[in-house]
Amino acid sequence: MQGAEPGPGGGLIRFGRSELRITVAVNGAVFWGWDGAGPQPSYALGESPEPDPRAVLEPDKDGGWRVVAERATVTVSRHGAVEVCTPGGVTLRRDLPPRWWEPVGGGTARWMQRSEVAADARFFGLGGRASGPRLRDGTYRLWNTDPGRAFGPGDDPLYLTMPVQLVVADAGTHLVFHDTTWDGTVVLREGEEGAGSGHDRAGRCEVRMDGGPLRCWVMVGTPARVLHTWASLTGAPALPPAWALGHHHARWGFGSEQEMRRIVAGYQRHGLPLDAVHLDIDHYDDHQVFTVDRERFPELPQLAEELRRDGIRLVSIVDPAVKATPGNAVYDSGTAVDAFVRDPSGRTVRGVVWAGESAFPDFTHAGVRKWWGGLYEERLGQGFAGFWHDMNEPTSFNAFGEPTLPRSARHALEGRGGDHREAHNVYALCMARAGYEALRELAPERRPFLFSRSGWAGLQRYGGTWSGDVATGWPGLRASLALVLGLGLCGVPYSGPDVGGFDGSPSPELYLRWFQLGAYLPLFRTHASLRAGRREPWEFGAEVLEHARVALLERRRLLPYFMTLAHLARRTGAPYVRPVWWGAPEDRALRDCEDTFLLGDGLLVAPVLAPGADRRAVQLPRGRWYDTVTEEAYEGPAQVLVDAPLSRIPVFARAGAVIPVRGADGGLELEVWAPARGRTGGGLVVPDAGDGWDEPEIERYVARRQGRGVVVTRVRENGSAAPTHPVRVRGLD
Questions:
Q1: Is 179 annotated as catalytic?
Q2: How far apart are CA 649 and CA 652, in angstroms?
C-alpha cells in the first residue's frame, strides 16, 4: 500500500501495481473495484445507489485502512486483502489480494480472487443449480448452457447462471456479487470446525474469470435484509398478473386447435381449474418465430377470445433465432435495421436452430431491442396474453466449438463494442428487457407476463424463469425444488419446473408427487417434450385424478396468498419460496435442511421426494406449527414424523399466521391460525385480483388469544379496526 484518498462513502487506496476503490452505498451495500473498475456500466444494476456520506475511509492498524458503516466494517490490509466484518467485529469473509494474468496470445486479462469464510458457513445461489440448494464442494461454471438433453442433479452448468453467492454462517449472512459477465468458474470448499482443541479450517471460494472488470458488491444482514438490499440494487421483481399465479398447461406437441380444445375440454369436464395454456414451437409456421401455422391453427384469435371468456389465457413461446431466408418478414425487417449479430469480418453469423439456418438479433443494442419489441404486436394481435422465451442462452445446434454463438461474434454492448465472450451471459437478459419494455408500451393497461429459460443477475426486473428440460425421475423432482430455492436466493422469486419432467413417462406416483409440489411453487406449469408421455391428470387413473384435483383446488384457494407474496416480493425482494432457515439462519439443523421450504412466512411445505413414502420426517423451525389438514399442533424446533399419504403432502401453518385465501363464494377470506397461549401473531394481505398497475394498500392484521377465542384486528395508522374480510379461525384447542 502506498496511500489512500478518502472520498464519498469510502475512497481510493493505491498499491504499487494496482488501486482499489471502496464505496458504501446508502442502501448498505459495499462496492469495491480494482484498477479503475466502477459500478457502471453494468447489466445487473439499474441506477447506481448514492454513496453513504456517513461512511468514511480511515486509517486502521498495521498500516491498513477501513470503512465503518452501519451494517458492516470493511478493512483493507497493507497487502491488499479485503475483510468484511459484522458491526460487532466478527469476520464474515476475507478476500485475498487478487491475481491477474494475460492469456496466451494477448487479449483481455484474466483474474482470480480467493476468499475465506467461516468454518461453519454454507454456500447457496450461483443462479439455477440442480445440485442445490446448498452448494457442496465442487466447481461451478458461470456460462449459460443448454445441456442438450434432460438434466438431473449431476448436470452443471445449466441455462441460468449468475455470479451471486449467498453465504450463511452462525455469525451472519452475506451476499456477494462479482459483477462481470464473462465466462468463469467458482470453486467452493466448505470449511470444517476443529474438534476439541483443534483448529478450524475456513471455508474457501475461488472465482476465476476469463475477463471483465474485477468489481464486487457485498451485502450483510439477515436474509430478508440482504435480499431487500439486492433488490434495491438490481431492481424490484416484476409483478405478474393474477392469472399467472394459477395453473398452466403446456406441451411441445399440441399440434392443432383441435388438440388444444380437447385438452381444455378435459380440464372443464373433470372440474379442474385451468388458468393458462402455452403453445410451443409447433404452432409456428415452419418453426419461424412470430408466425402461425394457418392450417393447424386457422382461427387462433377467435380461440384465444373464447378461452379468455372462460378465464384461460394463451401464452406463446418466443425464440430469438430468426430463419435466415429472404422473404421471411422478420428476417427482412431485421436485415433492414442491421439487427443481427455479425462476425469480425462483418458477415452475419448463421447458426442452426429449429427453423434451420438462422440469424440472431443483437439484443445488446438499444435499437435492436426496440425493433424486436415491436414484433410482439403480432403476438398480441393473435390473442396471446403472455410469453415464454426459450433457446436464448443462445443455443445453436451446429458446432462453433460449443452449442452457442462463436466467441468471436461481435456485439454492440450498448455502444462499447465487444464480442460474445462478454455478451453471452446477458443475451437472454437483454432479450427479456426487449420483450418487457415493448409490452409496457403495446399494452400499457396490463402487467406483462414473461418468463425466460436463460438470464442473468437482474432478470427479475422483467419476469421469471423455469427449470428448463428437467429429467423425468425422482432425482429430477428433487432438482426442481433445488432450482426454485436457489433462484429465489439470487433475487428471482418467480420460477417453477416442468411438472412431471420434460422427457419420458412418469409413473402415476411420481407425477402426483410432482404435481403436489408444483401446487405450492410460484410458477405452476405442466410441460413435456414432443416424445414424452401425457401430462394431463386424468391420464394417470381415477385415484391420481382425484388427488390432483385436491391439489389444484388448494392452489386456487391460496391464490390471494400467492398474490400477496408477489406484491411483497416486488416491495421487499423476499422470494415466495424460502429455505426453512430464512428466519433463523443461525440454526444449523435448518441450514442443512433441503427437502422442506417456507411459502412466505405463514406456511411450511414438506414435499414427498422419494418413491413409496407414506410418512416423512419434517424439520420444524422454532414455534408452534399446525398440520393444515388435521390441525394437530407441533412444537419446534424439532424433527417430527408425520403422515404423507398419496392424497397429500404435509403442509404446516405457523401459529398466529393470518393467511388470505379464496372463500367458497370467490371472495377474499382471512384464515387465522390460533396463536399459542400468551403469544400474538399476524400477517399481511394485499388484495389484488387484477392485471393492472394500481398499487393496492397493504393490510396489516394482528391475531391474539382472548380467553377461549382469538381476536383479529386490522392495524391502521390511526388505530385498529375490525377486519374488512370474513375471518375463519383454525387450530383452537
A1: no
A2: 10
